[in-house]
């Protein structure tokens, strides 16, 4: 029998009675966000909404985004990235488990000096992919052109966020490059490896 999302007791400041809320809502109140699935429009919109709300609530308190994601869609991931750069609070990023593909892109998107990975975390970067293998020729060409633009955008961001030269990032994105936390730090995707 599935246990579902755990609930915890929480008392709203100024309220005399405590109520039971799901654990993620409780953690959001502490400015702790989670990306624990593939990036898609639904999770993207949820995270963007939470980040905007929390930045309005307090613009000078950091947010912390915990990432354990196999990647996902490029456009919803870029929407999260843009929001992270737009809001006033710094967004710390923490890799626990796996940050692959769009997950690693969002890991690198955190405030430089505040990007962290746990010691046994894995990070993977590669070029964006598309599903145009079933498309008609005209659509195939248009989608391929769009894919090249997205790849250029993602490569530019990795260059800016990691401090690595364009040729290094471009070469690494040609294939799946898996890294340990220490290797991700050397690559400039994270700044700190948490101590065991």
UniProtKB/TrEMBL annotation:
GO molecular function: ATP-dependent peptidase activity; ATPase binding; serine-type endopeptidase activity
Key words of the record: Cytoplasm, Hydrolase, Plastid, Protease, Serine protease
Gene Ontology cellular-component annotations: endopeptidase Clp complex; plastid stroma
Subcellular location: Cytoplasm; Plastid
EC number: 3.4.21.92
CDD domains assigned to the protein according to its UniProt record, in alphabetical order: S14_ClpP_2 (cd07017)
Major localisation: cytoplasm
A Pfam family this chain is assigned to: CLP_protease
Domain of life: Eukaryota
Keyword Cytoplasm included in the entry's annotation: yes
Single GO BP term: protein quality control for misfolded or incompletely synthesized proteins
Catalytic activity: Hydrolysis of proteins to small peptides in the presence of ATP and magnesium. alpha-casein is the usual test substrate. In the absence of ATP, only oligopeptides shorter than five residues are hydrolyzed (such as succinyl-Leu-Tyr-|-NHMec, and Leu-Tyr-Leu-|-Tyr-Trp, in which cleavage of the -Tyr-|-Leu- and -Tyr-|-Trp bonds also occurs)
Function: Cleaves peptides in various proteins in a process that requires ATP hydrolysis. Has a chymotrypsin-like activity. Plays a major role in the degradation of misfolded proteins.
Name of the protein described by the UniProt record: ATP-dependent Clp protease proteolytic subunit
């Amino acid at each position: 029998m599935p246990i579902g999302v755990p609930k915890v007791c929480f008392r709203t400041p100024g309220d005399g009675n405590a109520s039971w809320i799901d654990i993620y809502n409780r953690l959001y109140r502490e400015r702790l966000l989670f990306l624990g699935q593939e990036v898609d429009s639904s999770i993207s919109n949820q995270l963007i909404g939470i980040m905007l709300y929390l930045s309005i609530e307090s613009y000078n308190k950091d947010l912390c985004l915990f990432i354990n994601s196999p990647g996902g869609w490029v456009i919803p991931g870029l929407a999260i990235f843009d929001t992270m750069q737009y809001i006033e609070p710094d967004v710390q990023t923490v890799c626990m488990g796996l940050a692959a593909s769009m997950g690693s892109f969002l890991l690198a998107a955190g405030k430089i000096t505040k990007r962290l990975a746990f010691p046994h975390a894995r990070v993977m970067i590669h070029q964006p992919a598309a599903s145009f293998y079933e498309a008609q020729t005209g659509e195939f060409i248009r989608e391929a052109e769009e894919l090249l633009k997205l790849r250029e955008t993602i490569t530019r961001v990795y260059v800016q966020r990691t401090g690595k030269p364009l040729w290094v990032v471009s070469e690494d994105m040609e294939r799946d490059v898996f890294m340990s936390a220490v290797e991700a730090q050397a690559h400039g995707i994270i700044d700190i490896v948490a101590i065991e």
